[in-house]
Every structure is written in structure tokens, then in C-alpha cells.
Amino acid sequence: MAVLVYTENWDGKFKKATYELLSYANEIAKNTGNETVAITVGNVSDEELKKLGQYGAVKVLVNKEEKFAKFTAQAYSTLLADAAKAQSANFVIFANSYSGRALAPRVSVKLDASLAPGAIQLPTSYEPFVIKKKAYSGKAFVDYELTGDVKVLTLNQNSFKIVEDTKKIVIEEYTTDVADNEFVAKVVDVQKETGKLSVTDAEILVSGGRGLKGPENWGMLEEMAEILGAGICCSRPVSDLDWRPHSEHVGQTGKVVAPNLYIAIGVSGAIQHLAGVNSSKVMVVINNDPEAPFFEAADYGIVGDAFEVVPKLNEALKNFKAS
Amino acid sequence: MKVLICIGHVPDTTSKIRFTDNDTKFDKSDIQYIVGPYEELGLTRLLELKEAKKIKTITAINVGLKETEATLRKALAIGADNAVRVDANPTDALFVAKQIAEVCKKDNYDIVITGKESIDYNGGQVGEMIAEYLGVPSISSTAKLDLDGDKATLVREIDGGKEVIETSIPFVATAQKGFAAEPRIPSMRGIMQARRKKLAVVAAVSQDEKTKTTKHFLPEAKAACKMVDADNVGELVRLLNEEAKVI
Ligand SMILES: Cc1cc2nc3c(=O)[nH]c(=O)nc-3n(C[C@H](O)[C@H](O)[C@H](O)COP(=O)(O)OP(=O)(O)OC[C@H]3O[C@@H](n4cnc5c(N)ncnc54)[C@H](O)[C@@H]3O)c2cc1C
Ligand SMILES: Nc1ncnc2c1ncn2[C@@H]1O[C@H](COP(=O)(O)O)[C@@H](O)[C@H]1O
After folding, report:
1. In chain B, which residue's Cα lies nearest the Cα of A138?
2. What is the pLDDT of residues A257-281, one digit of tens each?
3. What is the mean pLDDT of residues B1-8?
């Protein structure tokens, strides 16, 4: 029996998040007497595939066929569900990423499985099988019991640490019959944001709100991000006003993020903004209004004018990094 | 072209969340219910497409008890042509998806739109599950939808960028930010008209429960925010390094 893990790759490479996911799956495998098997789609070198063995995978299934070169939720879910059956998997685990969210529900229907989307930690109990997840847009948590024999989970990013567990890994080419009509939805173009640290990958995020007055004032935030190796994000009005790209909007209607450090500058901390960021490990707020609601949610705060505080903070951070 | 839009009946985003019955149930008292914000964007875009004569009818559907009819009426007031309520207490996403898929099989919708996720259970599953039950393509987290006859072009958000997708009907798409610019609000005329629009009530089909929410928790109270003087930013750097250990 197996725990099957869908390990996404980006142009043939795995990311840190993949190893977090695999470590999580491996922990569940160990606790349920299963083996950890990975599956990936695309042109991934053997050398890269072997890295999965460092985090507990005893086998990796790889599909390099041209027809699967581009993502199609329908066909991919057939491929993954058939692999799960072939491996007698009683768990199938995805990252709670755009692809994971697109596939996990379809795979769970195919396997007649129970699905828990957005797990934030290891199961709180195995018998019965209970997963803790966020609900009400981060305003609450729930215990979610999965009663099916097969269980499908998606794991929130940045919620589990990497654990090494080196295994001898077998690489196997894998395919299954997928009808042509499952490839009807076709990707005709991919627009990548290049060069920037993506908002969901960043471990530190510098966030700006309407308090920054205009797009021309983002230089000091970019400088801070540069010093800290951080990503940049913003509140909804900022992207609605086109001061910053929509891909940077965080919150209930934007991206949900969980960095180790979130620095909010000139953001009031409206409940819908907090819904997307309140899983951050540490939150810092810089706001000139001591009554701003964000101070209630934050760990550290400075009351002051961002245009004075941020340049001084950048200096201090630079000195700290240089020391 | 017949389109079905799945309308969730969810607590207003500013609601204070409380639980009852030993934290096993959501406390509905004093809660204002709204149309889920993502399907609201979905409905708005469908109305634009209808005005452009690319869609003929828009049907709003909800799986819920009688209390959700007010939310369906709101969708009708915004502009949906008619509505269906599947009469059942929705137990989990699979149950909801199964009901909606059954209605689709009977009434043959060309396109089904859901929100990318509900703002109460934050599952993000119903749309993809409907697609799987129907054996049709699903396009998740869609930020744009355009139609040209029975062909559709969609833009899907992915990690680190966007994908442009072409497909033909039938399909299911889940709507997120960008699907429409601003959600439409009902006009006075819309509200009057909504009263006369048809709201059908249909019985549910059976579906085994695969998941159960057994307990709810509120987040633990946070320690008070540590304030640092604006003239002493070095102290913040020290705290982030030595105490919080995040830089
Ligand atoms: C259904 C719904 C969904 C929503 N989804 C989202 C979402 O996903 N994300 C989101 O962000 N919002 C969302 N909103 C909007 C949200 O309610 C707030 O309106 C928004 O977050 C406010 O953005 P802001 O904090 O940048 O601006 P403001 O509320 O205008 O706050 C600006 C802040 O900057 C401070 N400030 C001003 N000048 C300075 C200065 N010189 N130095 C330091 N501080 C200064 C002010 O004191 C103030 O606190 C949503 C709303 C609704 C109804
Ligand atoms: N009870 C319901 N009735 C109709 N549509 C629903 C219901 N629950 C969820 N949906 C739709 O499915 C989407 C995703 O919901 P969820 O999978 O619960 O996050 C929502 O945005 C709605 O469009």
C-alpha cells in the first residue's frame, strides 16, 4: 500500500515546497505502514528525480509523454487516479497550489475518496482520521474527519518543515489510457512573471497599502524587499487602482499567503485583508494611525509615518545584514 | 447557450464567527448571508455575455434549505433568469456537487460556473467535482472568460503566472478575481422583477457522506502587539532577529 504524492515540477525542477510536501506525506506513510511513492509529469532528469529519495520516496513514477506536456485538469486527474489504483494507494497527497486544487477534487471523485483541502498540519488522529484546516477565511479552524477508505489531502504551503529520510529510489515510466476527449481544454499560451519572487513562494513579504499614496512611492518597499530577499505584495485597493499588478493582491479575494515574516506598511488591516495573511508566522505593522486594526493582529508595530520610518528601517536592516 | 451559476449562501465577510452545541455547529444567529463573492463575479460576467448575445439563459442554483431562497432571490435581482433550489441541508462538497451534477444531466447546461471557493468552508472543490461527475473539462481559478459560439477562451491563474486556455462547451469553470471587474448590485427594477422570476424547488438525490466537520475552533488569542518607537527602528531589527528569529 502506498501514499501517492503529486510532486509538481517547474521546467523539470522541484522546489523547496515539493520537499515539504513529500516530507509531510512520508510522515503519514510511516504512521500508517505505507510506502511513499511520488508521481510527476514532464521532462525531469533522473538526477532531479533521485532527489525525491532523500525525503522518503521509494519510487517515483514519471510521465514524459508529449500529450501531457501541458496541464489539463481532466486528463491529468485520470492519469493520477489510475496511478493511485495501480499503486493501491490509500492516500493521495497534493500541494494546495493552483494545480493541486484543480486536481484533488476530481481525483477524489474518481477514487470514491474523502477529500480534505488545505491541511495545515499532520492528522490530529489517525483512527478516526482527522485533519485540522482553516475555515471562515482564516477566522476559525475546524476538525475535519475523513471517513472514506481512500483519503485525498492538499497541504497548505509553508506549513510543514522538510525532514530528510533517505531511501533508495526506483524510477519508473508511467502511463495509462486517457481518451482524446479528456484533452479538450488546451493551454494555448503561458504568461510567466519572470525574475520576481512569486508572492506565494516568498518566505518574507513586504506589503504596501493605500497609505503609500501612489505607485511612485514603492521604491522604498522594493529596497526593503531587496535587502531581505523578500517578495512584494499589496492590499486590494492598491491593485484596483493599478498602482501594482493584480498578481500582488493578497487577502480574501486575492492570494492567501503564509510567509515567516509579513511586513505591512500603510495597510489598515481590514478583516478581508487579514483573511489572506493571518497565517503568517510573524507580522509587523507600520502605520501612522495607532488605532489601525492591524495592530490588533500584529506581533510588532511601529506608529509612524511610513515615509520617515521605512527609509530608517532600511538603513538599519542594511547595517544588520552587513554585520 | 444555457448557463448554470452555482450560488453559495455564505456569511457576510465581516461577520463575527461563533459556534454552538459544544462547538460542533456554526451559530447562525445575527449572521447576514450573502451571495458568495466569487460567484457574484461569475454572475456579473455572465450578464455581460448575455448582453453581448453570447448566452441565452442564466440559471442560478443553490443546494440548501428554505432559508437560502433569499440569497437566490438576490441572484435573480442581480439578473439571473431563473433559479433552482435543491432542497437539502448540504453536508459536504461531494454532496453539493452530486446534486448540481444531477440537475445538469437533466437540464443539459452548456456551461457551469462556480466560485473558486466558498468563504465559509474554503474548500474550493465543488466546481471540479461537478466537472468530474459530468465527465467534462474543468478550468479552475479563472480570471477571464470569453465566448465565441461554442468555443471559449479562459485565463487561469497558476503559480507564478497565467495560462490561456481554449476549450469547447460543455465545461465547468471556477471564477476568481478578475472574472468581472466589479460585482453588480441589484437595481430597484431588478428586485421587483426577481419576485416574479421562477424559483423551482427540486428534491435531492442520495449521496454517502465522506467527510464530517466534527469541531470548530476560534484562533488562539494573540499576545499583544509589541510596540517599537519610531525613532528606534534598530530595536525592531533586533527583535526580529533575536526574539522572532525571522531575519
Ligand atoms: C468582499 C470583499 C472582499 C475584499 N477583499 C480584499 C482583499 O482580498 N484584500 C484586501 O486588501 N482588501 C480586500 N477588501 C477591501 C478591504 O475591506 C479594505 O478596504 C482594504 O484592505 C483597505 O486597503 P488599505 O489598507 O490599503 O487602505 P486603507 O483602508 O485606506 O488604509 C490605509 C492605511 O494606511 C495608513 N496610512 C496613511 N498614510 C500613512 C503614512 N504616511 N504612513 C503610514 N501609514 C499611513 C492609514 O492609517 C490606514 O490605516 C475586500 C472588501 C470586500 C467587501
Ligand atoms: N450549497 C451550495 N449551493 C450551490 N453552490 C455551492 C454550494 N456550495 C458551494 N457552491 C459553489 O461552489 C463553489 C466552491 O465551493 P467550496 O467547494 O465549498 O469552496 C462556491 O463558490 C459556489 O459557487
Report:
1. B219
2. 999 999 999 999 999 999 999 989 9
3. 98
* pLDDT tens-digit map of B41-68: 999 999 999 999 999 999 999 999 999 9
CATH 3.40.50.620 for domain A2-182: yes
**CA proximity to B141, closest of A18, A81, A256:** A256
- The answer to whether domain A2-182 and domain A204-322 are alike in fold is yes
Report the greatest alpha carbon distance in chain A. 63
Distance from C-alpha of B140 to C-alpha of A257, rounded to nearest angstrom? 19
* Neighbour count for residue A209 (Cβ, 10 Å): 22
Q: What value does the CA radius of gyration of chain A take, rounded to a whole number of Å?
A: 21
Nearest one of A297, A112, A223, A262 to B132, comparing CA atoms = A112
CA separation for the pair B8, B59 (Å, rounded): 14
C-alpha atoms less than 13 angstroms from C-alpha of B186 in its C-beta half-sphere: 21
> What SS3 class is residue A51?
helix
Instruction: Dig out the grid coordinates for A4 from the structure.
Output: 501517492
Whole-prediction pTM: 0.92
Domain-by-domain residue ranges, chain A?
Answer: 2-182, 204-322
ipTM above 0.95, yes or no: no
Cα(B92) to ligand 2 centroid in Å equals: 10
**What percent of chain A shows pLDDT beyond 70?**
100
Q: What is the CATH number of domain A204-322?
A: 3.40.50.1220
Is the pLDDT at B111 greater than 70? The verdict is: yes
Distance in Å, alpha carbon of A30 to nearest chain B alpha carbon: 23
Following DSSP, what letter does each residue of B1-51 receive, concatenated? Answer: -EEEEE--EEE-TTPPP-EETTTTEE--TTPPEEE-HHHHHHHHHHHHHHH
B99 touches chain A (CB under 8 A): no
Nearest bound ligand to CA B90?
2
Taking only the tens place, the pLDDT of each residue in B151-206 is: 999 999 998 889 999 999 999 999 999 999 999 999 999 999 999 999 999 999 99
Asked if A94 and A65 count as a contact pair (C-beta separation under 8 A), the reply is no
Residues 6-25 of chain A with CB under 8 A from chain B are 10
For residue B27, the one-letter residue type is D
Residue of A nearest to B13 (CA): A272
pLDDT of residue A195: 66
The count of domains in chain B is 1
CATH of the domain at B170: 3.40.50.620
Distance CA B19, CA B10 (A): 15
> Which residue's entry shows cell 438576490?
B74
Residue A212's pLDDT is 98
Question: Can you state the angle between helices A98-110 and B126-134, rounded to 10 degrees?
Answer: 50
8 Å CB contact between B30 and B57 = no
**pLDDT per residue as tens digits for the range B120-161:** 988 999 999 999 999 999 999 999 999 999 999 999 999 888
- Residues 121-180 on B with a CB inside 8 Å of A are 121-129, 131-133, 136-141, 143, 156-168, 171, 176-178
Residue A263 parent element (H or E): strand A261-265
